[in-house]
């Protein structure tokens, strides 16, 4: 460290970003292990991974900028693409799981899609 | 709107040549000058000033980030709760947005809001089926989605 207290503050901010990112990733993984079914697990997987990765990348970006004076566009693009793709993959996995017949947790209270799907199937049966 | 963006880029490149420094910084300065010029001459260029929509888009992104942080704190609550007493379920949400782009944006936003995960978009594009972590808890979020997200997406795209 070069000693001035501005640098010290920057170091603390970078540490905060890195630590919070890592913390969110860890708790996301714990969530994936703890939650009862696919859908609730996807909640943990999509949300905390995006914020965790974003936090770590912002930390790395600030570190490179403060220490070496590099503006790394790649890291910013990385955040952008994670933000863009995580929800899409969550959506596709849950849709595929539902279509493949993975049951909801037994304590689930509501399922509107089951009725709609049944209606759809009846329509198809009538058509053919 | 495309005409204005092209004009703006042309102004930026022109600035780059006039100041004879071919770097990103001078392009950026030129672009900002272009924005100012377009703002001053907005009565003479067709369509409304495109920065208005860009500003709306920035607001949407800020909303997105805020919801992302909130939803993570929400998830943490469930992860570290010793007893798992939430009541998950799937509910249907009727949507007003029409085009594929808007629906994609809305579905992404829903996935990143507290306690909700978009599962299926119905065949005729009138409903989104959403898996919620805690159904009794989610009423407020539904209002949020209907009133703030959908409205803001429509403001950006139309």
UniProtKB/TrEMBL annotation, chain A:
<feature type="transmembrane region" description="Helical">
    <location>
        <begin position="45"/>
        <end position="65"/>
    </location>
</feature>
<dbReference type="InterPro" id="IPR005133">
    <property type="entry name" value="PhaG_MnhG_YufB"/>
</dbReference>
<feature type="transmembrane region" description="Helical">
    <location>
        <begin position="71"/>
        <end position="89"/>
    </location>
</feature>
<protein>
    <submittedName>
        <fullName>Na+/H+ antiporter subunit G</fullName>
    </submittedName>
</protein>
<keyword id="KW-0050">Antiport</keyword>
<keyword id="KW-1133">Transmembrane helix</keyword>
<keyword id="KW-0472">Membrane</keyword>
<comment type="similarity">
    <text>Belongs to the CPA3 antiporters (TC 2.A.63) subunit G family.</text>
</comment>
<keyword id="KW-0812">Transmembrane</keyword>
<dbReference type="Pfam" id="PF03334">
    <property type="entry name" value="PhaG_MnhG_YufB"/>
</dbReference>
<keyword id="KW-0813">Transport</keyword>
<feature type="transmembrane region" description="Helical">
    <location>
        <begin position="6"/>
        <end position="33"/>
    </location>
</feature>
């Amino acid at each position: 460290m070069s000693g001035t207290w501005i640098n010290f503050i920057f170091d603390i901010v970078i540490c905060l970003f890195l630590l919070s990112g890592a913390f969110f990733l860890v708790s996301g993984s714990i969530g994936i292990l703890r939650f009862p079914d696919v859908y609730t697990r996807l909640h943990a997987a999509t949300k905390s991974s995006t914020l965790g990765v974003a936090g770590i990348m912002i930390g790395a970006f600030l570190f490179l900028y403060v220490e070496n004076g590099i503006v790394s566009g790649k890291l910013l693009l990385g955040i952008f693409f994670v933000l863009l793709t995580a929800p899409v993959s969550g959506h596709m996995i849950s849709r595929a799981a539902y279509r493949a017949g993975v049951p909801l947790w037994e304590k689930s209270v509501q399922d509107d899609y089951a009725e709609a799907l049944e209606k759809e199937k009846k329509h198809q049966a009538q058509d053919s | 709107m495309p005409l204005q963006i092209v004009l703006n880029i042309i102004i930026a490149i022109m600035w780059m040549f006039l100041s004879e420094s071919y770097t990103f910084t001078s392009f950026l300065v030129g672009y900002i000058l272009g924005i100012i010029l377009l703002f001053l001459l907005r009565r003479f260029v067709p369509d409304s000033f495109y920065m208005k929509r860009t500003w709306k888009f920035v607001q949407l992104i800020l909303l997105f980030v805020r919801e992302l942080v909130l939803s993570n704190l929400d998830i943490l609550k469930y992860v570290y709760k010793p007893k798992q007493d939430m009541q998950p379920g799937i509910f249907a949400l009727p949507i007003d947005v029409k085009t594929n782009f808007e629906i994609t944006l809305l579905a992404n936003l829903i996935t990143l809001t507290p306690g909700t995960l978009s599962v299926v978009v119905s065949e005729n594009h009138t409903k989104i089926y959403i898996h919620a972590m805690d159904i009794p808890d989610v009423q407020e979020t539904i209002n949020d989605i209907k009133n703030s997200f959908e409205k803001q997406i429509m403001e950006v795209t139309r």
